[in-house]
Amino acid sequence: MSDCPIVGFDHVQLAMPAGGEDAARAFYAGVLGLAEVPKPADLATRGGCWFEGGGVSVHLGVDANFRPAAKAHPALLVEDLAAMRDRLEAYDVAFTDGSPLDGYRRGDICDPFGNRIELMQKL
């Protein structure tokens, strides 16, 4: 039994520049295969997009002072990293092999805004 009151992870939010919704949709839905979900009406006026799939939720929020997250990042689990790498190549998305980590194959990509995303496959 843990004394930790945290029970799970709801979503990760990444920043994007104003007007980047179409690029976000093309990447997160088109390339990564996540489904866009509607934002609540009171939040939709702020811009941005929300995506879900495979048990993860990724929110893209507009930041007037946007700077890409080069170090901080979400790590998304994939079933088959080689197949995902082929998919990324078909969309001209650069993939960089990650350093070894016991129990995983992994690598990094960037979204259209330069935010780092780690992709991991459990071995």
TrEMBL record:
Domain VOC residues, every copy: 8-122
Gene3D superfamilies per UniProt: 2,3-Dihydroxybiphenyl 1,2-Dioxygenase, domain 1
Tree of life domain: Bacteria
Protein name: Glyoxalase-like domain protein
Organism: Tsuneonella dongtanensis
Phylogenetic lineage: Bacteria, Pseudomonadati, Pseudomonadota, Alphaproteobacteria, Sphingomonadales
